[in-house]
Amino acid sequence: APPAHCTNRHTTRATVTQREQKELRTCTAPSSSHVRMLSSLLPSSLAFLAESDLTIGIKHTSAYGFRREQLDRLLRSIRRRYATAEVIVADDGCKADRTAVYTHNVTLVCTEAGSGLSLGRNTIVRRASTEFVLLLDDDVVFSEATDLAALHDALVRDPGAALAGGCYDDLVRGDADCFNLAFSVTGGGTAVAARFATLQAQGGGCGVVDATHNFFLARRSALVQHGWDARQKVMEHETFFYALWLHGQRVLACPAVRVQHNTSRSLAYVSSSLRFGRMAYFLQYLCKDFPEVASFATPFIRWDCATRTYCEPTFNARFPYNAPECGKAMPWWEDEDDRSAVELPLVTRAHVEAWGAVDAGSASPTARELGLPRVPLLMMIMTHPTSAASRARRTHQRATWLSKEWRQRDRPWPVPWRYLYVMGEDGSPTPRVSPSSTTAISGDSLRLLGTAEGYRNLVHKVVAAMRWAATEVDFDVLLKADDDVVVHVSSLYDWVWRLTPQRRHALYAGYVWRGKPVVRSDKLSQSWGRWAVPYEQYGEPTYPPYADGSAYALGRDAVALVLQGVTERERAGAPLLEVEDAFVGVMLAAAAGRAANVTPTHWPLRTLRAGASAKFKPPDDISPWPQLWVVQPEEAAAEAAGARAAAERLAWTKTAEAAAKAANRITPADKVGKLFVPPASAGDNGSAPLSFTPPAHCAKRRRPK
After folding, report:
1. 3-state DSSP assignment of residue 402
2. How far apart are CA 144 and CA 260, in angstroms?
3. Which of 61, 165, 400, 479 is found 20 to 30 A from 532 (Cα to Cα)?
């Protein structure tokens, strides 16, 4: 039954006083017709908060007796003000006081002991079904100042806001704690600073900030889309709110809405809680979730992701970050998944602010109509999601050239470019709790669900990446690269943007191979047999000119021609060539009649490959080396170059059997000599024998056999 002041309401707007408006907020859940009548009495900027539209979610740690007592006090305070609202308790350890749970009509959801804050909050959001979700921890208590209707009114006034938070009244210190922060970003998103925000109060006494306390009313749809990284059992706060900021989701702070916070801790809790003593183990995930961030500073802690160290500043010091405690090594689990669990837009607020007024060319009319993100130079790096070797190569790339703030040569402007690691499926679970689509960007990675990993499937992976880019991004040039290369981004951008727009959009450039023979058998040496192509896939003896797969650039018109050729082959039921880089050249050569201006172009500057300089080791920072464009580290390149050279030599033999014999003769013990022994059979295709004059050192090594 509603309280007395909720009955006999006047039905005309003019007779409702401010006091009556406040009284209406305390009415318990009425019928839907009563809700419509009461809402009509309120000013147009307010809306009635029915308890049926609200879920209260509590993250609980039941392993400690004093936390179970705190949960009981919190539930009593909630039911005094919101008797029928749905309450969900995510219990870490499943030792909650069942009497308190049943007494207060609470939905209890058990999570694994030690699973942490993030998993518990994600669980609450998934179980909730209402439009609004209130999230808080179990160490607070509702008071007379806990006016959830005020938070709801703030969200109604600002439809673009994701959540509205309140403040704490500290029961131990006796002061108010609002913890409102504002983010500032420099270096194109590489340096982030979070400082205390000055609240500019708007309607209802609430204002816009970038981060607030973990006591907030949120739209459930926003929490579903922008959840928490379940790996962050603690230290999740900055990651969650910075992801909201990058997505342009507004956060409101309402300092008049408060809960009482009990900051006292038992000795058992302090000695064994993850937040005390083991906090450092979970700092690494902010760096993994935002791979481009080199430093992230707050008033309480600073992450140095570039050096994998952290600092807890000395309070009340003139130079708080110069304390001896700074520079502590950040625990980093190398053997764990390094992928981000935060889904991000390709172009964030940080990139837009960094690029500023850079003249990056005009977007296409179709892209403007669809509202696609503008990225003049898009780099897509092929990598394996869980391979230890690929993970090590990603770590090296992120620590060197990918984290550099590249600037245009001879100009002070930054290069407007973005990179993405492209990953298929290998059967391993993704870090995200609930992937929202078949293609999604998590951190700096694009996952292609439904596209299998493996070298024989690389061509399908590259085609899927091109299709994604063609439909989701407004780019001028796409650079496909492997995860073992280093690219001088400034040199590449400078050369590409000296071309005319027509030539730039029809670009096909890289380390061009010409007259490359087609390997015909997949039964030969494993080191190079993966490049074998059967006749039914491609019947010509040699490939048309094509750019090497380590890195090549395609203009958006060239990408469209490749995809058009792929579509035609799929409609005809013809398989795709499994040699990905050669297949791109074949598609563009077939399209030469439709677009004669798309021809392979060799890099105009030097491209370092294995063998070009045997003693040269690429430096970690190649920015002082503008003559080097694409550098493939010597070890990886030597393996690839050696395998391809063997494939070229053995492709000259007449039959697969002869090639197999030749492959067997090539052993480390024989070194160089046997590589020069010519085949005894006739030349290729049964023609005249191959013309061959062995070097002098081969004559001395002939054996009687």
Report:
1. helix
2. 10
3. 479
Angle, vertex CA 258, rays to CA 254 and CA 263, nearest 5: 130
Of 105-119, 429-443, 623-637, the range with the highest mean pLDDT is: 105-119
| CA 68 – CA 449 distance, rounded (Å) | 42
Best CA proximity match to 217, nearest among 147, 169, 168: 147
Give the span between the Cα atoms of 324 and 313, in whole angstroms: 9
Confidence (pLDDT) at 429: 60
- State the Cα–Cα distance between residues 438 and 471, nearest whole angstrom: 14
Token readout for 458 is 């690389």
Beta bridge partners of residue 250, listed in sequence order? 161
Q: Give the integer Cα–Cα distance in Å for 380 and 479.
A: 6
Distance of CA 309 to the CA centre of its chain: 22
pLDDT digits (tens, 9 = 90+) for 415-451: 999 999 999 987 666 554 344 445 678 899 999 888 8
567-600: b (≥16 Cβ within 10 Å) or e: eebeeeeeebbbbbbbbbbbbbbbbeeeeeebbb
DSSP 351-377: HHHHHTT----PPPHHHHHHTPPEEEE
Give residue 307's identity as a one-letter amino acid code. Answer: T
Question: Which H or E element spans position 135?
Answer: strand 132-137
Place of tokens 């992230």: 296
Predicted confidence at residue 74, as pLDDT, reads 95
CA distance 339 to 324: 32
Both structure tokens of 226: 């922008």
- Is 609 a residue whose pLDDT tops 70? no
Using alpha carbons, list the distances in angstroms from residue 483 to 22, 241, 290, 397, 584. 61, 31, 18, 8, 19
Whole-prediction pTM: 0.76
Question: How many other CB atoms sit within 10 Å of the CB of residue 677?
Answer: 16
Given a contact cutoff of 8 angstroms between Cβ atoms, the answer to whether 218 and 132 are in contact is yes
Place of tokens 């402007």: 413
Task: Give the number of other CB atoms < 10 A from CB of residue 44.
Answer: 8
The answer to whether 328 and 310 have CB atoms below 8 angstroms apart is yes
